[in-house]
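SEQUENCE AND FOLD
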Amino acid sequence: MQETLIAFGHNEKISNKILIIGGGNIGFNLAKNIEQSFDSARVKIIEKDKSRAEFIANELNDTIVINGNGLDEDVLNEANIDEVETVLALTNDDEDNLMVSVIVEKFSKDKRTMALINKPNYSLLQSSLKIDDLIDPRMNTVSSILKHVHKGTIENAYTILNGEYEVIEADIIETSELINKQLKDSNLPDEIRIGAILRGDTVIIPSSSYVFQKDDTVVLLSKRDQLPIVENMFRISSI
């Protein structure tokens, strides 16, 4: 993964010191996930509701919970903002999330800032406010449910470019239209591009003569209006 990121110009540094603003469901579950999967991380949460702060403090093992307002510079200082590497503003208020990111930028230009937004128009402010990443839960939710909506053997789907395209992972089974066909004979529309095949433990970048086989896992990019074709390609049966 690190080599792939570097190849595309993203020489990412892994953050070990993380500050989450907002201890709601998103912030709380993110901290819990980090505790379980990232041993070296040091996480702090700022939550302004006292009872909620007490609740998440009791539920989390290694995360430090501070009761206070993330927009208050004194509270940010209490959280040792100077030492923090990544700040995630995850409250249920878009304006607060944007303002927290701006305040953090004032403290240090080297920190990575991420803000949760629900109003798509705010994405226009990302560059001018110098926020590194905006998180749109609508798009993430769409991606997470697509695999349950799509028919057949589609395992994962990730929405990109404001829902215009999807990156899809699906398995080849006996009834697939692709089985035993060469890629050049698959008659795929230009709006559907196959990027890689996983066969066992081997990742294959297919050439035009590649022959699809049963149990191949196909990773493809599809325009949204071509999804019915993709679903037919990987349907469970021909009925």
